[in-house]
Specification:
alpha/beta; Rossmann fold; 7-stranded parallel β-sheet; 17 strands; glycosyltransferase; UDP_glucos_trans; transferase
Length: about 500
């Protein structure tokens, strides 16, 4: 290793193996790299490193290193070549989470190699909130460990507290209080994914999440992909709950320039064709529909959604994937949509169906896009709000339902349409909700608030001489902390 590398110090970053985690980790790495001369290595399984390599190669020159950690999915009862949640049926997800524990030995070898080559161990391990075991590695080697939650503060708190306390198991009521939130706050059973609803501490989900979250709570501090000014309540509560510093360095958004290969994914439509389609539409007139990188809805919901989009009479772009129960990566069959739907939408130029993966950031930043019908994964939320686009929430898994609760109750920038793949929806309800968000009354209020949030996000990341936004200051402080000796 070069002499310079020895002097600079090293950070090793370990994201969970999902695009919604890998993309913000990469952005965090870029920001730290921009501020320091530290060596940064992102460690992950070979196929995810391949994604990262193509994401990095499509943007500006970089010095972020990538390290492959040996991983064999078949040893964990997973199909070959499955190293990311994107291709996983729901039935395999718990196995997949558990399989991440096998990365401990290869991570220890990587750290030993860095230590040997540079003369001392890395300064810091930045690990995903789901990978609490990294904290044990860091502690045993005397290395600082920071936990990066790629979610917002409110969603993170709800997620970690519900797993740690299983509060819904302590009441017969559908509504329950979540420790860490004010006493008068209520969450609802329908906001829980069925795996957590059924969790009792002994099932394979609990056995992974409860200890991993407890270990992440031991880390030396938390990095959160949010902005101080947009989540005041969530941040105040999260800080109190974890009793650790929380750095708000968001929004960490993927760079639009690299979108052709964002996280190594090819879009199902040429960017130019998509932009030309949007150029022909009126300002704020298009509904963009997407459920993130790994989720899909049920066949009956898909039918109702198509009917509702058509009934609404609005223009839309919809990233379509096979419904639940079919290979999410397989071919899309016309029979999943109303008869003649795609043809009609094409002929009337009302709807653009994009297969599997769309250029999301570019769609959301186009002036014609008026609302985002989304599962409300945190990256999608940030990407939407940073462009002043209000949302229609349809949470499907993870902390998405808690994000929607905050978007509706705290921020006033969303309406909730459905919850999980279990909700029964009709075309009529879909069309009605689209009307609410796009009309001039309530819809205008939501748009105004989304624009205010976009302004906060811009200010937070702005640096004009001595004047620095909150996320710039947090990033400075984070770097100072990483460079300072770890307290004994
Ligand atoms: N994404 C995209 N095109 C798609 C679907 C997803 O570019 O068709 C990107 C999206 O811009 C976001 C990420 O994938 O950066 C999805 O992250 P999110 O947290 O919203 O949801 P997750 O996929 O983790 O459920």
């Amino acid at each position: 290793m070069a002499e310079a590398a020895k002097k600079n110090g090293h950070i090793v970053m370990i994201p969970f193996m999902a695009h919604g985690h890998i993309i913000p980790f990469l952005q965090l790495a870029r920001q730290i790299q921009h501020k320091t001369t530290l060596n940064i290595t992102i460690a992950n399984t070979p196929l995810n490193i391949q994604y990262l390599r193509s994401a990095l190669s499509s943007t500006s020159p970089h010095q972020i290193r990538l390290a492959e950690l040996h991983f064999d999915p078949t040893q964990h009862g997973l199909p070959p070549n499955v190293e990311n949640t994107e291709k996983l049926p729901l039935s395999h997800i718990a196995k997949f989470f558990n399989s991440s524990l096998s990365l401990e030995a290869p991570l220890r070898s990587l750290i030993a190699q860095i230590t040997e080559e540079e003369g001392y161990p890395p300064l810091c391990l930045i690990s995903d909130v789901f990978l609490g075991w990294v904290n044990s590695v860091a502690t045993s080697l005397g290395i600082r460990n920071l936990c990066f939650t790629t979610c917002g503060a409110y969603g993170t708190l709800a997620y970690i507290s519900i797993w740690s306390n299983l509060p819904h198991r302590k009441t017969d009521s559908d509504e329950f209080w979540v420790p860490g939130f004010p006493q008068n706050y209520r969450f609802h059973r329908t906001q829980l994914h069925k795996f957590i609803r059924q969790a009792d501490g002994t099932d394979e989900w609990s056995q992974f999440f409860i200890p991993q979250i407890a270990l992440s709570m031991n880390s030396d501090g938390w990095i959160c992909n949010t902005v101080e000014e947009i989540e005041p309540l969530g941040l105040q509560l999260l800080r109190k709950y974890v009793q650790r510093p929380v750095w708000t360095v968001g929004p960490l958004l993927p760079s639009a320039k690299g979108s052709k290969h964002r996280a190594g994914k090819e879009s199902g439509i040429a960017l130019e064709a998509c932009m030309e389609w949007l150029d022909l539409k009126d300002e704020n007139s298009v509904v963009y529909v997407s459920f993130g990188s790994q989720n899909t809805i049920s066949a009956s919901q898909m039918m109702a959604l198509a009917e509702g989009l058509e009934e609404s009479g609005r223009s839309f772009i919809w990233v379509v994937r096979p419904p639940v129960g079919f290979d999410i990566d397989g071919e899309f069959k016309e029979e999943w949509l109303p008869k003649g739907f795609e043809e009609r939408m094409r002929d009337t130029e009302k709807g653009l169906l994009v297969r599997k993966w769309g250029p999301q950031l570019e769609i959301l930043s186009h002036k014609s896009t008026g609302v985002f019908l989304s599962h409300c994964g945190w990256n999608s939320v940030l990407e939407s709000l940073s462009n002043g686009v209000p949302l229609i929430g349809w949470p499907l898994a993870a902390e998405q339902a808690y994000n929607v609760k905050m978007l509706v109750e705290e921020m006033g920038v969303a309406v909730e349409l459905a919850r999980t793949v279990e909700s029964t929806i009709t075309g009529e309800v879909v069309a009605k909700v689209i009307d609410i968000v796009m009309d001039n009354g309530k819809g205008k209020d939501m748009k105004d608030r989304a624009n205010e949030i976009a302004a906060h996000m811009r200010d937070a990341t702005t640096e004009k001489g001595e004047e620095k936004g909150s996320s710039v200051r947090a990033m400075d402080d984070l770097v100072t902390t990483i460079l300072s000796p770890k307290p004994l």
